[in-house]
Design goal:
The structure is a homodimer of 132-residue chains. By secondary structure, chain A is of the alpha+beta class. Chain A has a single domain, classed as Winged helix-like DNA-binding domain superfamily/Winged helix DNA-binding domain (Arc Repressor Mutant, subunit A), CATH 1.10.10.10. Chains A and B meet through β3, α4 and β5 of A and β3, α4 and β5 of B. The structure holds a DNA duplex (30 and 30 nucleotides).
Chain lengths: 132, 132
DNA sequence: TCGCACACGTTATAGCATAACGCAATTGAT
DNA sequence: ATCAATTGCGTTATGCTATAACGTGTGCGA
């Protein structure tokens, strides 16, 4: 899925996520956009839905939050499974890809004839700075 | 963490999850236990917290639900990272472990000096029966 | 110009999770 | 034995996350 031009709301939501130094909840995004006319959660969720579809934003399932893709210029969906390391202290998120992991998981799904649609890999813990 | 004897509430919650043929939300568990005196979500959440700690129940982050461990007799925490394949059609969950995946992720975290506490791997899609 | 698709706005509601209080039972050290 | 600490439990209230359902406006191709 390639990203067409973003609409006004989509652009606003994306910019908020890009400027943030960590993942944001939908309601936090809403609060940051009240000055721009946002009034209801659905305005955020609808924009997020598209941004996720376009692959420029990721959802962190384990913390119910959203983060801008680390390399939105490329199509993130083509990089295989995206994995995240989330620091529970400072909130920073590192995004990475590991083809060997993808391969192992695909081997498993193939063996089970399981049709994978979306795979989540999230490592929660402490980043180097916070663990010190 | 080894499991001590379960309390009454913990036992009730665990039995509900064991008998279920798929993951259950906390509120679904609550409804199933109203006849046994459960009245409030906290009763469920508190039991779940312990069961998760003991490793006999898993939380599925991507669907906000809970499932009994596939092999509660052993200590699941000692098996490395637990991965799940969740059928979005029939709701069935398959639990598995892949040491090579663990190894790759541990390599990554070691390289980044990231101290992993809890890792989530969840594959959503269609099981063999539902994909047909 | 009609119909369709899509983005948007609004209100209401559903679903998930925890804070804060107090009580009862258990345990274990003195 | 008794006191203090811990743990489980029950209840009320609240907060956070997400979506249903309705209607409006706009652009665009048949």
């Amino acid at each position: 899925m390639n990203a067409p031009a973003l609409t006004k709301n989509q652009t606003l939501v994306f910019e908020v996520l890009e400027k943030a130094d960590g993942p944001l909840s939908a309601y936090t995004i809403l609060d940051k956009l009240r000055d721009h006319g946002f009034r209801a959660p659905l305005q955020v969720y609808r924009a997020l839905e598209k941004l996720l579809e376009y692959g420029v934003v990721h959802r962190l399932e384990s913390i119910n939050a959203f983060v801008a893709c680390a390399h939105p210029e490329q199509n993130c969906h083509s990089h295989g499974i995206v994995a995240f390391a989330i620091c529970e202290s400072c909130g920073h998120v590192m995004e990475f890809h590991d083809h060997e992991v993808d391969h192992r998981l695909m081997d498993w799904t193939r063996g089970k004839k399981f049709k994978a649609e979306k795979t989540t890999i999230e490592i929660r813990g402490l980043c180097e700075a916070c663990a010190a």
